[in-house]
Amino acid sequence: MNAEPQVRADGRIEEARKRVFIKTYGCQMNVYDSERMADALAPHGYVETTDQDEADLILLNTCHIREKASEKVYSELGRLQSLRQRRAAAGKSTMIGVAGCVAQAEGDEIIARAPMVDLVFGPQSYHKLPELIERATTERLVETDLAGEDKFDHLPPPSRKAAVSRGYSAFLTVQEGCDKFCTFCVVPYTRGAETSRPIAQIVAEARDLAAAGVREITLLGQNVNAYHGLDDTGASVGLAELLYRLAEIEGLDRLRYTTSHPRDMDRDLIAAHRDLPQLMPYLHLPIQSGSDAILKSMNRRHTRDDYLRLVEKIRAARPDIALSGDFIVGFPGETDADFAETMRLIEEVGYASAFSFKYSPRPGTPGAEMDDQVDPDLASARLTELQALLKRQQVLFNRSMLGREMDVLLERPGRKPGQLAGRSPYLQAVHLDAPEDLIGTIQKVLVAGIGTNSLDCALVTKASFQTGRFGSRIDSQS
Ligand code: SAH
Ligand code: SF4
Ligand code: F3S
User: Fold this and answer.
1) pTM of this prediction?
2) Are 311 and 323 spatial neighbours (Cβ–Cβ below 8 Å)?
3) Would you say residue 352 lies in a domain?
4) For a FRET experiment, which of 57, 305, 344, 443 has its CA 20 to 30 Å from that of 154?
5) What is the tens place of the pLDDT at every residue in 334-388?
6) What is the pLDDT of residues 66-101, one digit of tens each?
C-alpha cells in the first residue's frame, strides 16, 4: 500500500502512517467490532481518520438485517469507486474492504457485483485483518468462515489511548451469534451459532476500560442474556454472575446489557436487577408482536402472556425499571386483529422507548417463503399508527421525570457553550449547564424541563460522585 516514509523539513524521516476510514452500519455489535478492527490495525501503522478522501484503506462494516440496510452498501460502494479514481489520479492507491453481516451473507455476490472491492470478510475473521489486507494487495479475496479459531483469543485489547478517545461509556461484546432462529431474522446465518467469551477475558477488558476512565459499560450480544461463559474453575455461568463480577471493578459505576430475549431472562438475572445498584434500571426486552399466532409463526417460542408475566416479575424486582422493545409490523399473516393485539400489549406494558420496523423479507429465512405476505402499504399504515402510540408513551415517560432528581453520567460538551451532555439512568439524553471538568463524572441533577429528544437539567451538587481519580483524561500511556 502507498504510505511511503516521508522526509520532513528538518531532514528527519517520519514513519509512514497509513490511514483507515471505517464506516459502521447496523447494531452496537458492529460499533464494537469496528473499534476492535481499528485496534487490530493500530500495531500495523494504521491510524483512524474521519476523512474518507485521505484514507488508504476504507472498510464498510455492514448490516444485513433489513433490505434497506443491505442495499446501502452497494450505493456506498458506487460512491467509493469515484473516490478511488480521484485518488488514483493523484497517484494514491486505495484499498476497499467490506466487513460485517452483508459480507458474511453475500461475500461472493459482492465480489462479483462490485469490482472496486478488494476484500470481503465476515465477523469471525476480524483478528486476521492485517494478514487479509496483505493478501488483498495481490488478489481479491472473500473470507467468510464462521467456525475456526476464536477471534477474541487473538484480537488485541483496545489501547489505553483508544479507550480514552472513545469516551466514558463503552461497549463490550460478551456473546455472539444466535441459536433462536426467529423466522424473520438473518442473524443466526450472519453471525453463526451462539458463543460466549470466558468471564476472565471480559473482566480483564472491563478493568482496562475502567482504568482508562470508562464509567459505564454496555455488555453486548445478539442474545446477550443467553450468555453462558466459563468461569475460572471451568464451570459455565450466566449473565447474572458476569454482572456481579463486573460490579466489583472499581470505577465502573454503571452496567447495562443488550439485547435480551424474553426466554433467557432467568431468575438470577431478574434478582440482579433488584440487588445490583450498578445495573441501570433500563431494559431492552423485544417482543416483536403482541399476537400469539404471530409470535408462534415468528418462532419466538413464548406467548404474550409469558412476556407480560415476565415484565411483572422484573418490575416487582426493580419497580423503577424502564422498558424498551422492538416491534415488527406486517409479518406474513398479520391480520388487523393481530395488529390490534400488538397495540393492546404496548398499552398494557408502557414503554419508555422502542424501535419498530416494517417487516422486510430476508432471503434464506423461513419468513420470506411464507405465502401470506402483507401488503406493504397496509404494513406502512400500521407502522405509522404503532409509532404514534410509542411516541406518546415516550413523551409521557419523559414528562414523568419533571421535577425529579437523578444521577447523570456527563459524557461530553453540549451543543451550546457552557453546556454538558450526558445520559440518565434510563438512557435519556440530558443537557445541563456545568463546568467542563465534570465530564466523565456522575452528578446529581434536577430535571427542570422536557425537550423533544432530551431532558433539560440543573446541577444539584458537585460533590456527590466526584471521582478525582479519573477527573483528567489526559493520558501518557498508549
Ligand atoms: N436479538 C434481538 C434482535 C436483533 S435484530 C432479539 O431477539 O430481539 C434487531 C431488531 O431488528 C429485531 O428485534 C427486530 O425487531 C428487527 N428485525 C430483525 N429482522 C427483521 C426483518 N426481517 N424485518 C424487519 N425487522 C427486523
Ligand atoms: Fe434474530 Fe431471533 Fe436471534 Fe434475535 S433471537 S437475533 S431476532 S433470531
Ligand atoms: Fe445488522 Fe448484523 Fe447487527 S445484521 S443488526 S449488523 S448483527
Assistant:
1) 0.93
2) yes
3) no
4) 57
5) 999 999 999 999 999 999 999 999 999 999 999 999 999 999 999 999 999 999 9
6) 999 888 999 999 999 999 999 999 999 999 999 999
Nearest alpha carbon, ligand 3 atom 6: 63
Range list of β-strands (E), 117-230: 119-121, 141-143, 169-173, 175-176, 195-196, 216-220, 229-230
Final residue of a structural domain among 143, 166, 195: 143
Shared domain for 442 and 299, answered yes or no, is: no
More confident position, 17 or 21:
21
Q: How many CB atoms lie within 10 A of CB 26?
A: 21
Can you give the CATH number for the domain in which 434 is found? Answer: 2.40.50.140
Chain segment 189-209, per-residue pLDDT in tens: 999 999 999 999 999 999 999
CATH for 80: 3.40.50.12160
| Last-in-domain residue among 328, 353, 376 | 328
Q: Which ligand does the CA of 105 lie closest to?
A: 3
Domain boundaries, position 58: 6-143
Query: What is the CA(468)–ligand 2 centre distance, in A?
Result: 42
Ligand nearest to the CA of 190: 3
DSSP conformational letter for 269: H
Q: Confirm whether 270 is domain-assigned.
A: yes
Q: How far is the CA of 150 from the centre of ligand 2 (A)?
A: 22
Cβ of 259 less than 6 Å from ligand 1: yes
Instruction: List the one residue out of 134, 130, 137 whose CA is nearest residue 43.
Output: 130
- Asked, for residue 313, whether it belongs to a domain, the answer is yes
Which residue's C-alpha comes closest to atom 24 of ligand 1?
A: 359
Show Cβ contacts of residue 370 under 8 Å, excluding neighbours closer than 6 positions.
183, 297, 332, 333
88 and 45 inside one domain? yes
**Which of 161, 196, 209, 182 has its CA nearest to residue 43?**
161
3-class DSSP state for residue 441?
coil
User: Vertex 200, ends 188 and 121: CA angle to 5°?
Assistant: 35
Q: Looking at the 3D structure of the chain, how many domains does it have?
A: 3
Grid coordinates of 435? 463546568
Residue 95's SS3 state is: strand
Q: For residue 410, what is its C-alpha cell?
A: 456527563
Phi-psi domain of 412 (left: phi exceeds 0; alpha: psi -120 through 50; beta: other): beta
SS3 158: coil
Instruction: Count the Cβ atoms, other than its own, within 10 Å of residue 147.
Output: 7
Closest residue by Cα to atom 8, ligand 1, is 286
User: Would you say 61 and 83 are in contact if contact means Cβ atoms under 8 Å apart?
Assistant: no
